[in-house]
Amino acid sequence: MNRDFISIRSMEGELKLSHKKRGYGLTVTTKELIVQKPHINYYLLLADILSIVPAQPYGLKPLRHVPDWTEHAGLVSVAPGSRHYRLMLRCATVHNRSGIHQIRSCDFILPIDDRMLQAIVDWSKLDCLSEGTSRPGPDISDITGG
To answer: What is the gyration radius of the CA atoms in the chain, in angstroms?
Structure first.
């Protein structure tokens, strides 16, 4: 893996699935989702996920956006040809070269493949609200916390 990536600190829960691409990595355990990007890792507790909804990518180039006010920080990561989802969270832990800190009320738009999405849904115990779409993969149009 690229040396610009920070190694994952100790994970909470049992490792279930890990997926690494050139510009990002996703790891799911029984308790958290870890998003890796060069120079930064985001630790998202599955219990802190409020909802997961399909999202339209904003373009074909990777894009990162973090507003000046950290309580509403967000991340947009776009990969061509991937299905994207918006994850809304109560909070997340950020590990970058400056240290580890918390952000509140954050959204992430991420390319997530079907197996990874299913693992997130299974271990987060989110309820699936479906409209019966005909696309391949999990029939997930809106997933919300109870």
So the answer is: 14
